[in-house]
TrEMBL record:
It comes from Microbacterium allomyrinae. This is Uncharacterized protein. Keywords: Membrane, Transmembrane, Transmembrane helix. Pfam families: DUF6264. It comes from the Bacteria. Residues 1-23, 36-45 have a biased composition (Basic and acidic residues). Residues 1-45 are annotated as: Disordered. InterPro entries: DUF6264. The keyword Transmembrane applies. The keyword Transmembrane applies. The chain crosses the membrane at residues 102-123, 151-174, 181-204.
Amino acid sequence: MSDDTTRAESTDAEAARADDAARPSRPQYGEYATPEEQRARIRQPDVTRALDTGASATEQPVAAPAFGEANAHLAHAAPSHPARETSVTAAAPPRPRMVDRIVTFALLAYGLVNVVSSFPTFLDYSLYADTMFALLGVDVELADPAAGRPWGIAAALVLAIGWLVTAAFSWWSVRRGRLSWWIPLVGGIVFTLVAGTLMVVPLMNDPAAWEALVGTLP
């Protein structure tokens, strides 16, 4: 009886070993998988670990923001006080601009008064010549006073047009917030010199008057 039992147990053991030998060996991780399958498996979440921890298998780890993204987020989240300070600083300069505007328009007004007051003298050239001779202490008369009238009209037109151009350019500069006080000053000097040159031409064409004027020079 015992021999039969022993014989049966040995037979079962041999049969089990035969089954184990016939059964293929268990493959190692990734042994039979292609490289593409391995890469796909690596990218997939660990389902077993998710089940153990109770988390969802489709949850993806939250990546930490890059350095640049963090800086951009902080810049957007920063309070807007610096912007207010910048706007206040940018709005500070109106006082100098206001002074510049006042000076600019004052010079334009002064130039307009000079232009208007010069018209009677320029349009009456004999009066202009007599006034100049009296100021220089010269006792001389023009040979042809009527010859100077066209030059006087031209000089008056130069002053009028020059003032209009200067005023327009000054207004354009003021509207753009630029420093403008120098424009009426330069315009007045330039156009006054041009008009004065035109008024001297008839005197240069009169030999007696010109010789008397040159004689007054040191």
